[in-house]
Specification:
about 475 residues; alpha/beta; 7-stranded mixed beta sheet; 12 helices; about 35% helix; binds flavin-adenine dinucleotide
Length: about 475
C-alpha cells in the first residue's frame, strides 16, 4: 500500500507543503525484525509524553533519520536531538531491505554528468562508495553487531549477450571511478556456483548487513548519548519551528523530515529461506558478504545471511498489495529464479516474504531551507541504505552550518524550493510513478527477450532503468 500524506501549509501560513510515505504496514515483519527480536527482545520505546522542545527534531526513525541524528551529535554532542517515529524504528523501508548495501549503479552518474558535468558525477560516485566504507566503519567503531560483510556485487551472465553487456557496463563504470572487474567462468565459480554462468563482473563496493540490527544499534548509540527516540509518535504537521504530533507538539528551531518520501518507484519484494544445510552451501559455494545478481534486466539479488539463509529480492512495477506486504506473484518469481540460478536450493523452504513500496530515485535527494530551519531527505530508491548514511552526514553538516564537500554534492538543494519540491498532485505523482515503473518493467522483459532472440545486447537496456 502506498501510504502518502500531504502536510501544509505551515503553521505560520507559509505555502510549505511536504509529502512523505510511511513505508507500508508495520505488521509485515521482515526476517530482519524477527532475527533482531529473537536476539534482543525489546518492547517499543515510549511515545512522546506531551509537548516538548528540542534543538533539532527529526521525523522518521529509518536509517536516514538515525544517521542524521548520529552525525549531529558527533558534530555537537551538546545538541538536544529528538527523533519521532510513528511505528518503531526501522518500520519503513530501512527494516525491510534485501540485506545488501552498496554504492548503487554507476550508470546513474550519467544523469549527474548531463546536468552538472563529469567532475561532479565522479565526485558523487566517490561519495557513494565512501558511504559503504563509512557504514562498516561506524558499525565497527560503535560495536554495532550488524553482520556487516563486504564481498562485492557479483553479477553473473548466462548468455553471450549478457556477457557483452556486462563488459560494456564495466568499461563505462570506469569513467566514474568505479573499479568493476570482469570475471571469467572460473572466477565466478570461485565466489558462487551459478547454473550456466559464462562470466560476470565484480563491483567491490557492495556488501551485506542486517538492517534492523543496524537500526537498533544506532538507536542505542543515540540514546546513550542523550538523544531521545520516541516511537508510536506520528507527526501530523511539520512547519518552521514546530512539529505537531499525535502525542504533543515539539518546538525546535531545526526540523528534519526523514520519512522515506520521494517519487513512487514501484515495489521491492524479498523472501528468505530457512537456514540451509552445510552441504547445500558447499554446493552453492556462495561466499559470505558476496551479493549475487543475475544479469537480466529485472535482476534478482541473493545473499547469504549470518545464520545461513538465502535472502532473495527483486524490484517490480507492482507495489506490495496485500496488507502483509507480500505479493504472491513476486514470491513465485523469486522461487523460480532461485531454482534456476542455484539449483541445489530446489525445495528450500521459504520462511519469510516481505515487501514495501519503494520511494526515491537511484540518487539521494535532500536539502535544507535555512530560513525556515527545515531540512529533508527522501528515500534513496533501491540502494538507499548507504545513501541514507551519506544523506545523514550531509544533513548534519548543513544543519550545523558546515560547508564541507558533502554539502556541495550535486543532489543537495538549498532553499524553500527543495522543501516544497514535492508539493501538490500526490495522486498524479503516484500514477506517474506507477506508469514509469510499469514501462521499465515492460522494457526489461522485452530487453531480455530481445537478447535471447538475437544473442546481442539489447537496445532497450536504457529504457529498462538502472539494474
Ligand atoms: C523491500 C525493499 C528492499 C530494499 N532492499 C534494499 C537493499 O537491500 N539495499 C539498499 O541499499 N536499499 C534497499 N532498499 C531501499 C532502502 O531500504 C531505502 O532506500 C532506505 O531504507 C530509506 O531509508 P529512509 O530512512 O529514508 O526511509 P524509511 O526507512 O522508510 O524511514 C522512514 C521512517 O519514517 C517514518 N514515518 C513516516 N511518516 C511518519 C510520520 N508522519 N510521523 C512519524 N514517522 C513517520 C516511517 O515509519 C519510517 O520508519 C529496499 C527497499 C525496499 C522497499
Amino acid at each position: 500500500m502506498d501510504d502518502v500524506h500531504e502536510v501544509g501549509p505551515g503553521a505560520d501560513g507559509s505555502a510549505l507543503t511536504l509529502r512523505w510515505s510511511t513505508g507500508g504496514d508495520p505488521s509485515s515483519r521482515s526476517l530482519w525484525f524477527d532475527q533482531a527480536q529473537a536476539a534482543d527482545p525489546r518492547p517499543a520505546r515510549d511515545p512522546l509524553d506531551g509537548d516538548t522542545t528540542a534543538d533539532v527534531v527529526i521525523v522518521g526513525a529509518g536509517l536516514t533519520g538515525l544517521w542524521t541524528a548520529y552525525y549531529l551529535l558527533e558534530a555537537d554532542p551538546a545538541l538536544d536531538v529528538l527523533v519521532v517515529e510513528q511505528h518503531v524504528a526501522g518500520a519503513g523501508a530501512s527494516g525491510r531491505t534485501g540485506g545488501w548495501f552498496g554504492a548503487g549503479p554507476a550508470v546513474a552518474a550519467v544523469r549527474i554528468a548531463a546536468v552538472h558535468g563529469p567532475d561532479a558525477a565522479r565526485t558523487a560516485r566517490a561519495a557513494l562508495r565512501d558511504a559503504v566504507v563509512e557504514v562498516g566503519g561506524v558499525a565497527a567503531a560503535e560495536q554495532i553487531d550488524g553482520d556487516v560483510a563486504v564481498g562485492g556485487l557479483l553479477t553473473v551472465a548466462r548468455s553471450p549477450a549478457q556477457l557483452a553487456r556486462l563488459a560494456a557496463e564495466a568499461e563505462a563504470a570506469r569513467v566514474w571511478g568505479d573499479e568493476v572487474e570482469l570475471l571469467g567462468p572460473d572466477d565466478v565459480a570461485g565466489s558462487a556456483r551459478v547454473a550456466g554462468a559464462l562470466g560476470g563482473t565484480l563491483a567491490p563496493d557492495v556488501g551485506r548487513l542486517q538492517p534492523v540490527a543496524l537500526v537498533r544499534g544506532l538507536v542505542d548509540v543515540l540514546t546513550g548519548h542523550g538523544a531521545r527516540v520516541a516511537e508510536g509518535t506520528r507527526a501530523l504537521r511539520l512547519s518552521p519551528g514546530a512539529v505537531v504530533t499525535d502525542q504533543g507538539t515539539v518546538r525546535a528551531p531545526l526540523v528534519v523530515r526523514a520519512t522515506g518520501g520521494g517519487r513512487p518507484a514501484g515495489g521491492r519484494h524479498a523472501v528468505a529461506t530457512a537456514p540451509l544445510a552445510e552441504e547445500v552451501w558447499a554446493a552453492l559455494g556462495l561466499r559470505r558478504g558476496v551479493v549475487l545478481a543475475d544479469a537480466g534486466h529485472r535482476p534478482v539479488r541473493a545473499l547469504r545471511t549470518a545464520d545461513d539463509r538465502l535472502v532473495l529480492s527483486l524490484r517490480s512495477a507492482r507495489q506490495p498489495s496485500a496488507p502483509s506486504g507480500q505479493d504472491l506473484a513476486a514470491v513465485l518469481r523469486l522461487h523460480r529464479a532461485l531454482a534456476g540460478l542455484l539449483p541445489p536450493t530446489a525445495g528450500a523452504r521459504t520462511t519469510h516474504a516481505w515487501g514495501v513500496a519503494l520511494a526515491g530515485g537511484p540518487l539521494p535527494a535532500l536539502g535544507f531551507d535555512a530560513d525556515a530551519g527545515l531540512a529533508w531527505a527522501d528515500g534513496g530508491g533501491d540502494d538507499g541504505v548507504a545513501a541514507a548514511n551519506l544523506a545523514g552526514r550531509t544533513l548534519a553538516d548543513l544543519l550545523t552550518g558546515g560547508d564541507g564537500a558533502l554539502t556541495r554534492l550535486p543532489w543537495v538543494v538549498r532553499g524553500a524550493a527543495g522543501a516544497s519540491g514535492a508539493a501538490g498532485g500526490a495522486a498524479a505523482r503516484r500514477l506517474a510513478g506507477r506508469i514509469r515503473a510499469a514501462v521499465r518493467e515492460g522494457a526489461a522483459t522485452l530487453a531480455d527477450q530481445e537478447e535471447r532472440l538475437t544473442g546481442r545486447p539489447s537496445r532497450l537496456t536504457g529504457l529498462a532503468g538502472e539494474r
